[in-house]
Backbone:
C-alpha cells in the first residue's frame, strides 16, 4: 500500500495529465484510463487520510448520499432552481411543497457532495452536478427508481442473506423481503398499483444508459460493430425503449435493428415514438425472451444488462429460446456490468468469462464462446461473445 506522500505525488502528476487532456478535449481510451487512475488514487488517498474509523463510518452513512439525492429528484428540485442566479429556501419550499426546515437540511447535506451550493447565505444555486440533473430528465427517472425501488431492496440485503444464505430463487431476493412479497421483481413491477414506478423504471433505463453510470457508449466502442456485414441484422433482446438501438443505428445506418421487450414496454415505446423522429432502420417487437425467438437468421442477438437479472437456469432457457433462430455465424452478445443491485433485486449472479463460456455450452455445444470485449476506461463493463457454429440438431 502507498503512503500518503507517495499517493499525493502520484495524484499531482496524474492531475496534470488529466487537466492537459481536458484542455485538448482528448477523450481517447488512453486519456480516459488516466482519468480513471486519478479517480482511484484520490479515493485511496481519502481512505488513508481519514483512517479506518472515519472511513468506515462514512461508508455506513453513505445511505444519506443516496436518500438526499432521492429527495432532490423526487421533488424535482433541479428544475425549480433557476439555470442562472439563485432562489431562497423559502421560495423553493413553496415551489416544491416540502417544508422549509427539512428542505434546507437535505439540500445542505447534498451540498457536501457538490449538489447545489448556497451563495449568498440562504439562497440556492446550481453546480455542474445539479445542472446535470436539470438537463437529464431520463436520468432523474432512474434516480427516482433508485430512491423508491432499489434503495429499499439494497437496505434489505443483509437481512435477506441472513434469512436465505444459500438461495438462488428470484422469489427469495432482498427486494421480496423489503416489500414483503413472494413475487419476483418483474412480476411485482407489473402490478397495477406500481404503474408510476414502472414508468420511471422504463424511462430510467434510457437515463442510466445515456447520462448515468451504465453508459451504452461503452458497448458501442467495445464491440467491433464495424466488422459486421454492412447490412447486418441485429436483434436487441430486452432492449427497453430502444435507446441503445437508436445510437447503434446512428453509428451504422445500414444495419437493420429489431428491439424486443415485454409487451407493456413496447406498447409504451411505440406511443412515445409516434412524436419522435427515430431512425427507420429500428423496429420494435413485443417478445418474451423465454419464448422461441421469432427473428430468424439475424447476424447478432444482443442482450444488454439482461442476463444479470437472471440465475443460470433462466439464462440457459433464454439462450435455448434463441437456438431455433440462429444461422451458422450468428453472434450472441451478452453485455454486463458489475454491481450488487441485481443480487438485491433478483438474486442474480455476476459471471466470469469461464462461467459465460459454460452457460453458452450448456445451452448448446454449437454456441462457441469467442471471448470478451472491453474498453479500458470502463473495466466494470464487458461484452461476452459466442458464435453459433451450426451443425447440430436444434
Ligand atoms: C436492466 S433492463 C436493460 C434494458 C436495456 N437493454 C439497457 O441496456 O438499458 C432489462 C430489460 O429486460 C426487459 N425484460 C425483463 N424480462 C423480460 C422478458 N421476459 N422478455 C423480454 N424482456 C424482458 C425489461 O423490461 C428491461 O427493459
Residues:
Amino acid at each position: 500500500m502507498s503512503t500518503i506522500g507517495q499517493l499525493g505525488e502520484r495524484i499531482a502528476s496524474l492531475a496534470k495529465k488529466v487537466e492537459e487532456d481536458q484542455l485538448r478535449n482528448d477523450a481517447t481510451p488512453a486519456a480516459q484510463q488516466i482519468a480513471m487512475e486519478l479517480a482511484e488514487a484520490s479515493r485511496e488517498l481519502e481512505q488513508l487520510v481519514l483512517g479506518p474509523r472515519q472511513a468506515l463510518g462514512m461508508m455506513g452513512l453513505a445511505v444519506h448520499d443516496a436518500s438526499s439525492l432521492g429527495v432532490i429528484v423526487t421533488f424535482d428540485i433541479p428544475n425549480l432552481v433557476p439555470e442562472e442566479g439563485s432562489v431562497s429556501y423559502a421560495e423553493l419550499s413553496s415551489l416544491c411543497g416540502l417544508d422549509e426546515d427539512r428542505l434546507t437540511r437535505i439540500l445542505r447535506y447534498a451540498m457536501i457532495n457538490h449538489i447545489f451550493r448556497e451563495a449568498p447565505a440562504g439562497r440556492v444555486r446550481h453546480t455542474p452536478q445539479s445542472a446535470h440533473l436539470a438537463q437529464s430528465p431520463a436520468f432523474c427517472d432512474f434516480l427516482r427508481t433508485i430512491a423508491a425501488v432499489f434503495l429499499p431492496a439494497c437496505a434489505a440485503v443483509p437481512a435477506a442473506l441472513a434469512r436465505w444464505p444459500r438461495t438462488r430463487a428470484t422469489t427469495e431476493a432482498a427486494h421480496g423481503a423489503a416489500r414483503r412479497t413472494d413475487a419476483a421483481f418483474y412480476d411485482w413491477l407489473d402490478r397495477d398499483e406500481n404503474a408510476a414506478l414502472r414508468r420511471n423504471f422504463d424511462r430510467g433505463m434510457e437515463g442510466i444508459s445515456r447520462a448515468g453510470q451504465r453508459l451504452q457508449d461503452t458497448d458501442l466502442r467495445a464491440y467491433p460493430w464495424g466488422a459486421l456485414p454492412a447490412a447486418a441484422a441485429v436483434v436487441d433482446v430486452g432492449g427497453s425503449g430502444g435507446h441503445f438501438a437508436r445510437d447503434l443505428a446512428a453509428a451504422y445506418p445500414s444495419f437493420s435493428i429489431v428491439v424486443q421487450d415485454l409487451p407493456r414496454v413496447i406498447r409504451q415505446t411505440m406511443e412515445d415514438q409516434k412524436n419522435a423522429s427515430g431512425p427507420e432502420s429500428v423496429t420494435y417487437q413485443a417478445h418474451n425472451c423465454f419464448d422461441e425467438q421469432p427473428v430468424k437468421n439475424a447476424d447478432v442477438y444482443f442482450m444488454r444488462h439482461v442476463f444479470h437479472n437472471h440465475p443460470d437456469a433462466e439464462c440457459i432457457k433464454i439462450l435455448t429460446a434463441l437456438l431455433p433462430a440462429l444461422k451458422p455465424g450468428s453472434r450472441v452478445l451478452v453485455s454486463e456490468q458489475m454491481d450488487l443491485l441485481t443480487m438485491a433485486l433478483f438474486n442474480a449472479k455476476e459471471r466470469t468469462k469461464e462461467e459465460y463460456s459454460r452457460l453458452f455450452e450448456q445451452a448448446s455445444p454449437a454456441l462457441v464462446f469467442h471471448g470478451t470485449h472491453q474498453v479500458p476506461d470502463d473495466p466494470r463493463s464487458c461484452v461476452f461473445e459466442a458464435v453459433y457454429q451450426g451443425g447440430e440438431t436444434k
About this structure: Residues 186, 205, 209, 238-240, 244, 261-262, 265, 288-290, 304-306, 309 surround S-adenosylmethionine (CB under 6 Å). The chain has 17 helices and ten strands. The chain has four domains: 4-60, 63-135, 137-207, 214-388.
